[in-house]
Amino acid sequence: MNKSELNSILNKVAAGDMTVEEATLAIKTQPYEDLGFAKIDHHRGIRQGASEVIYGAGKTKKQILKIIESMLNHGEKSVLITKLSNESAEYLSQSVPLFYDELSKIAVAGERAVAVNAGGKIVVAAAGTSDLPVAEEAALTAEFYGNMVVRLYDVGVAGVHRLLDHLSELTEAKVIIAVAGMEGALPSVIGGLVDCPVLAVPTSVGYGANFGGISALLSMLNSCASGVSVVNIDNGFGAGYLADMINKI
Amino acid sequence: MNKSELNSILNKVAAGDMTVEEATLAIKTQPYEDLGFAKIDHHRGIRQGASEVIYGAGKTKKQILKIIESMLNHGEKSVLITKLSNESAEYLSQSVPLFYDELSKIAVAGERAVAVNAGGKIVVAAAGTSDLPVAEEAALTAEFYGNMVVRLYDVGVAGVHRLLDHLSELTEAKVIIAVAGMEGALPSVIGGLVDCPVLAVPTSVGYGANFGGISALLSMLNSCASGVSVVNIDNGFGAGYLADMINKI
Amino acid sequence: MNKSELNSILNKVAAGDMTVEEATLAIKTQPYEDLGFAKIDHHRGIRQGASEVIYGAGKTKKQILKIIESMLNHGEKSVLITKLSNESAEYLSQSVPLFYDELSKIAVAGERAVAVNAGGKIVVAAAGTSDLPVAEEAALTAEFYGNMVVRLYDVGVAGVHRLLDHLSELTEAKVIIAVAGMEGALPSVIGGLVDCPVLAVPTSVGYGANFGGISALLSMLNSCASGVSVVNIDNGFGAGYLADMINKI
Amino acid sequence: MNKSELNSILNKVAAGDMTVEEATLAIKTQPYEDLGFAKIDHHRGIRQGASEVIYGAGKTKKQILKIIESMLNHGEKSVLITKLSNESAEYLSQSVPLFYDELSKIAVAGERAVAVNAGGKIVVAAAGTSDLPVAEEAALTAEFYGNMVVRLYDVGVAGVHRLLDHLSELTEAKVIIAVAGMEGALPSVIGGLVDCPVLAVPTSVGYGANFGGISALLSMLNSCASGVSVVNIDNGFGAGYLADMINKI
Amino acid sequence: MNKSELNSILNKVAAGDMTVEEATLAIKTQPYEDLGFAKIDHHRGIRQGASEVIYGAGKTKKQILKIIESMLNHGEKSVLITKLSNESAEYLSQSVPLFYDELSKIAVAGERAVAVNAGGKIVVAAAGTSDLPVAEEAALTAEFYGNMVVRLYDVGVAGVHRLLDHLSELTEAKVIIAVAGMEGALPSVIGGLVDCPVLAVPTSVGYGANFGGISALLSMLNSCASGVSVVNIDNGFGAGYLADMINKI
Amino acid sequence: MNKSELNSILNKVAAGDMTVEEATLAIKTQPYEDLGFAKIDHHRGIRQGASEVIYGAGKTKKQILKIIESMLNHGEKSVLITKLSNESAEYLSQSVPLFYDELSKIAVAGERAVAVNAGGKIVVAAAGTSDLPVAEEAALTAEFYGNMVVRLYDVGVAGVHRLLDHLSELTEAKVIIAVAGMEGALPSVIGGLVDCPVLAVPTSVGYGANFGGISALLSMLNSCASGVSVVNIDNGFGAGYLADMINKI
Amino acid sequence: MNKSELNSILNKVAAGDMTVEEATLAIKTQPYEDLGFAKIDHHRGIRQGASEVIYGAGKTKKQILKIIESMLNHGEKSVLITKLSNESAEYLSQSVPLFYDELSKIAVAGERAVAVNAGGKIVVAAAGTSDLPVAEEAALTAEFYGNMVVRLYDVGVAGVHRLLDHLSELTEAKVIIAVAGMEGALPSVIGGLVDCPVLAVPTSVGYGANFGGISALLSMLNSCASGVSVVNIDNGFGAGYLADMINKI
Amino acid sequence: MNKSELNSILNKVAAGDMTVEEATLAIKTQPYEDLGFAKIDHHRGIRQGASEVIYGAGKTKKQILKIIESMLNHGEKSVLITKLSNESAEYLSQSVPLFYDELSKIAVAGERAVAVNAGGKIVVAAAGTSDLPVAEEAALTAEFYGNMVVRLYDVGVAGVHRLLDHLSELTEAKVIIAVAGMEGALPSVIGGLVDCPVLAVPTSVGYGANFGGISALLSMLNSCASGVSVVNIDNGFGAGYLADMINKI
Question: For residue F134, which of F97, F184, F69 has the smallest C-alpha distance?
Fold first, then answer.
């Protein structure tokens, strides 16, 4: 609540157009529902331009169902759930309409958005076959928010000609998500070819000195290409969400 | 070079409008000047929308001067140099017009841009006084590329009311750069308040278990707020450059 | 044993009021029972103000039962067990009265304390739903020792207004336990709002660059708020125990 | 600002006892002075029970002087500065009355507090001679806030009888600060002897696999004694500040 | 083979007392049997004073059996196997006489030594109940080589009086093995009380910032007590073996 | 495509010997087949001298089968698959001729190469029995490409005479692969004995402070012997492939 | 000494052609000179094909001079010294003929080799200007041993077209040294373009999450390109030495 | 103080042979002098068989002098000081007789011991010239306590024949100290050759992935040779002290 909004409320109180109780409520009202184990923020769609998303990994299937129902009951048309186990997906699908992608463990409860909003194309590039679960998490997230997504898979830097053959798709993108494990060099190479933001997503793909994604993460943070920023290891959702944000500016 | 451009050149060759030599040159021409120790990319401004920038830390003052002169001689009006030592700055200023900010170690050789391009405001928020060198590196970079920058300094999360008092500036921003050392929580708090991209810059400010910025870096990568991405520790330039890119979409 | 106690014993010996054997015993008596695999300290309740607690994780269910029985036989009314597996809990409940909380893996054998001792309120604040097991371990520990506990759950910093709505509960607390995984920023924000001790508990909640709780741990150690101290990752018990200690000062 | 305070202000506005402008000011007034590079919080003494402290390490001597003058001009009688270099101390002492302890790099500008407030004794125990700078930072901080401090130095665990000879001082303490580098075992041993809170401060003293204090830090976090919590490496101030908080409960 | 042995062989060749073939064999003879996957050193008992030991963790039960049989067939009376799984133990016991200790996963195939050799007592001290598997690995190894072992268990530093009650056993030891997880402070405290070598064994017992034993390992390496050296995490065998070596000097 | 090849194509176009379409195709033709989840490079055998290899770990058995079939259909006689699970091997063997080595998890689909190409011998030396899976991955890879391989197993540095007995095999090698876990010293000792390249392969064999192979990896990187280079932990394939490359120079 | 050499010596002894003393000498003779602080290996040139090299960093200038003189006195024509400080170079040049390259800190005492031996070209590719010291260490080492070296500098992956323009040099190389700091992706991209061994040299160039070269090191170890192996951070010498070895196979 | 000593004192009190005050003194007497910043333990020579040693690194030259004087005044004939700076050594030598070794930074104040006690030889083996400072710290410490020391320097594993030439010295040792940086393999190779305890001392010698000695430390902890234990990085004193202890058993 900024100063002018506060001024406006206080003016109404001073003018008698609003009671003290109403003003207290307006200032302090809790724009979320308290389920005990979670506080559901029903105004977030308005405040932040995107509804709250459920991170499925740390929650029981019953907790997830309760949150979904609370959200659908408060007017949300659809709810995005990430890192959802197969078992929980099966459980949820008995109570609510559910789209579920087993590869990326992402789900949409309620209506699945189809309309593509205005904005440019988002390219999701992935270095190897093993990076696809994270890449799809990013791609499906971006599509959930109504973006047009172009997928470029298996374009890792050890076969740089595969990537260069897609130069036109890359240069036409408004924002690019680059997903890679192992040495994590894809965002640097892409960053040097284009003039749009590149969101780098390290994955935990690899073995040995890969250390669960640290290798790729450090590579991306140290990228010598400008215009590259990084999200957490395996955080396809984060990249998809941010790409949507940038695409709609 | 994408397919249609290649097609076009080949068609000219087939039509006799272009010699084989000319075509070879067009396809293979090196859009950079080779100084031996560096290859200056003079077409980067066209290809990527922003001229090449000189990272001053790993270069001698003589190398830096040569690169600047090469760039100014090829039509650049101004050149940005980051992490420039006081000593090198003094040396350069004897040969080229130089703006130098001692706090952030950033310099502009040639004309300093004054005109503010179209686009929204970029907010640069910094947690503490000690984070200012990095914050200023980001702010001056964004200004170099013609953006309007709003500075919010000393708004760390341990005094969250200082930040909330600037809610209006935050919500009016098109992109926010959040700079913090120590626990690095500023981007998470800001990310929860706004609906624009937040670029998080960890700094090496702190001591003990701070480990030269790792603490802040990990905090930012693990941010529970959506819409946050991260650049390297102390990489104010990277954030300023990317903010410019996003602001101009 | 301090100097005056020693003096007193020696004086009795010198006066013939105590035999050498009795003195030896008094000075050297072992205030614990030796079960072979463990030495149970039956005077700890007197010496440290709180009975010994059983850390369930590294022990077999039979070992745990033996320790409980030894303690109940020596006059303890109830025994706290932490990190107790479901299977061990089931086994124990066949032999002793047992309260068991499956979420936090905490149990109380014997009578469960009900009376609330004097002292102020202890607030247990948790950032996200996934932090609840650790938060409940802290809360139930504090309640075991007779403290009044106020729970504030799902008040993470990415939705700082949820936390600010509970400012009155926070400012009325005598000591606050702040539990958070991921970026672990909750203790810093709370520490800046109140003037009582804040005990920070990092949790292993998260993924990727979270590194099993290191991210949250480092954030809390580097907190820019004063009055914050930290216990081990996932150590809800430690925070609950220390909060009780402080509350009873 | 909690609900009742807000209610009170709004009631005054409704009753006409307060103008809209006055109410806005009361709700939104900035309880700090903006020096550009820093925002000085002049109400913190009231809100948090202790005035703001200046962390000297990341600031220029001129910045520090400006902050001190701003605070003294707003009614503070004395200001605590930590990690202050000899050079800055000399500079400051030309403009303001300054107590400076070269060992711990701590300073007090203005009047140095002498009166000892109510409350129990705070024991500061240090393992070795090399830990004294950090121990003194803790002790002087606690004394600055009016506490009675007992120093037990060179009582490391490799000579456990030195520590046991001071059992009476330890058991009489209301809160103990245990400072140690190297293996950092002091807090565990003390924690097992007493029933008051033990604040553990790892120091960066040592070499080799000490890794700048990590060894001691991890030891303290993993303490098998209950009632121990930890602050950052070398953070004597933080421990002294928190000890004062606990002592005054 | 040292110079005098070589001289002796060469002299025999020069004198015609030894053929070239015999000399070659004597110099080059392979004092081990090659099983393909392993080379069994049958002279090690002579050369190093102790027979080869089988590290069970990285081998199949069939490989282990073959090695045991090869050793028993070459005159060994008994063979020590460490880190042996329950399943492999059951398999082996069908073919060879086997003593197996489930707690420490240590086994003896063939005759189990009973006679106690000359030498002083070896004390094995363990901090907590959870450290017993490693402590028993050390104790049983030392006993396998004919040493008298005194066990002091559950004597962690958080109850330092439990340890001090055994001061006489400690001071009578010729070498002490100190086993501890968590903060790993036991060797430091013991090292300060005695004047014999202390072999420190960190264990992976603990959780959170324990990091699989790193915390205890670093503590022990940084011990401020003299006369302490360290073996690998959980390496009870290594400590038992070295203690035997020292005890027999 | 280098300059002369490009010149040649362009000359043909200029001479009318090649249409624009043909030239475009020649320059841009995609030398791989796109299976959606993977792009199979069918020209790699020509371009790099060795066919593409399938890294089995991150792929489903169905994906692997599709890639094998695509490669065999394009003229490959045999395909190498690494890190293949038993289950996938069983599945594949129902559809294609398959050699599978359970120890090293390496497989060859199609014809298994038998002919030994020209070139010297490759020695694969392994420190311990537990390193054999990685050593065999290296050896079988080198044999797959037609090299003669000499295996020296169980020649770890703690029994340096076992290694020295094989000095002649070592000095006759053209390239040596040295595989070791734990302290990883084998490559250093070998590197000091020979004058051919030594490829060091750290394995994750060991426990405690081994940290999944980091100990051996660091040892090998810090080798004081010249002529040693290192591949990733457990990367037997990488060493075998590179040894083949060097052997055929 | 292998079996046949030993046989030969023993046969001579048996035949009376060699005395026992001579044989002892031949077998045991120390092929190095003992300077007390160092043992100079004068036969290494014969045994390993390359003379010993002096690692200058950990030695005093006087120690270095003594070693050089010992080597030159034993018939070496030239001696390579790495990581030599300016000051030591100046000192040495007063006593022996010295070539010194200040950038790479590499020196040659005695005659500097000029003749180029047979063998293919070695390409040294460096990502950025700041990597030149390490790249030159590699290049000058390879030249010292008589190889023809092609330098490709400033060809980092963020400007991949700069690298591709040198495809012909790359494909004509017999072995390639790829030097890079920051994200260290250069070896992966090169490895995918060529079919010769690629020796990757990580440099400590960069800042922040670069961690003194760890980022580049991990990238290179995790390279998805085959045929890549890695040497220690900043170890240009090691790569140059190994490249020479491979080139001469 | 063990039970029998306590009994004895108490019996004297009961018999009237000792006053209460005398007994108190005997039990509680502080066997150290308190200098404020340090507590000097004057009975340690009796209790632990070796006088206290001064760790010079963390103390001022004045503190060191005071401790030395206190010790010499209480009957010590000589005092060992480690890690003593040149400057402090010069200062001390003006007040007390001082032997100072600049290489190892070790000093002896007072009389320097010359008599060699009974016991076997201690071998100090060092891998490279750069390891000599640490090796000499170990050797001089052992000599200070009256041991006979044999030095074997520059016997690193990359030239294993240099080490094998000293097999007789190694096999005749009663305890061996093996000092090495870089890959730290020396203790493993030595451990496999001898049947006496090997004390491994990692040094911080090296660069790049050496990480200040971590590489050597991990190698030594993971040694596959039995009978090896490890002290802290660069802790030559610790190894020398422990070797003395073992040698005198």
Answer: F184
Q: What's the CA gap between H105 and H118, in Å, rounded? A: 27
Touching pair H, G by Cβ (3+ pairs < 8 Å): yes
Q: Do H58 and D209 touch (CB under 8 A)?
A: no
Measure in Å the smallest separation between the Cα of G130 and chain B Cα atoms: 5
Tell me which chain B residue has its CA closest to the CA of residue F24.
B7
* Alpha-carbon span B104 to B90, nearest angstrom: 15
pLDDT for residue B189 is more than 70: yes
Measure G39 CA to nearest chain H CA, in Å. Answer: 6
CA distance E67 to E39: 9
Dist CA H3 CA G237 (whole Å): 65
* Shortest Cα distance, chain E CAs vs residue H194, angstroms: 6
- Rounded to the nearest integer, the mean pLDDT of chain G is 85
CB contact under 8 A, G14 and E16: yes
The Cα–Cα gap between E249 and E228 comes to 18
Q: Contact F158/H221, CB-based, under 8 Å?
A: no
Query: Residue H1's pLDDT is what?
Result: 45
3-state secondary structure of C12: helix
- The answer to whether residue H197 neighbours chain F at the CB level (below 8 Å) is no
Using a CB-CB cut-off of 8 Å, the residues of chain D touching B159 are 32, 39, 41
Report the residue from C37, C41, C202 with minimal CB separation from E132.
C37
The pTM is what? 0.86
Each residue's pLDDT tens digit in chain C (249 positions)? Answer: 445 566 677 677 777 787 766 665 565 544 556 666 666 655 455 444 456 788 888 788 998 999 999 888 877 888 999 999 999 999 999 999 999 999 999 999 998 766 677 679 999 999 988 899 999 999 999 999 999 999 999 999 888 888 888 888 998 999 999 999 998 999 999 998 898 999 999 999 888 888 889 999 999 999 988 899 999 999 999 999 999 999 988
H11 touches C at CB < 8 Å:
yes
Q: Give residue-wise pLDDT tens across range G149-183.
A: 999 999 998 888 888 888 889 989 999 999 999 98
Q: Which residues of A touch G156 (CB under 8 A)?
A: 224
Burial of G136 (0-12, 13-18, 19+ CB in 10 A): buried
In contact, H103 and H96? CB cutoff 8 Å:
no
Cβ of residue H20 closer than 8 Å to a chain C Cβ: yes
Q: First-to-last CA distance in chain F?
A: 22
SS3 F168: helix
B153: distance to nearest CA of chain D, Å?
7
Quick check: G23 and E10 CB within 8 A? yes
In a mutational test of the E interface, the residue from G2, G13, G20, G22 whose CB has the highest number of chain E CBs within 10 Å is: G20
**According to the 3-state scheme, what is the secondary structure of chain E?**
CCHHHHHHHHHHHHCCCCCHHHHHHHHHCCCEEECCCCEEECCHHHHHCCCCCEECCCCCHHHHHHHHHHHHHCCCCEEEEECCCHHHHHHHHCCCCEEEECCCCEEEEECCCCCCCCCCEEEEEECCHHHHHHHHHHHHHHHHCCCEEEEEECCCHHHHHHHHCCHHHHHHCCEEEEEECCCCCHHHHHHHHCCCCEEEEECCCCCHHHHHHHHHHHHHHCCCCCCEEECCCCCHHHHHHHHHHHHCC
The per-residue pLDDT for G212 is 87
Q: What are phi and psi of H3, to 5 degrees?
A: -55, -45
Please state, in angstroms and as integers, the Cα–Cα distance from residue E208 to each residue in C204, E21, F13, G147, H56, following that order.
8, 62, 68, 54, 35
CB contact under 8 A, H158 and F223: yes
- Which residues from B are below 8 Å from A175, CB to CB? 249
Interface of E with C in 139-178 (CB under 8 A): 153-155, 159, 161-162, 165
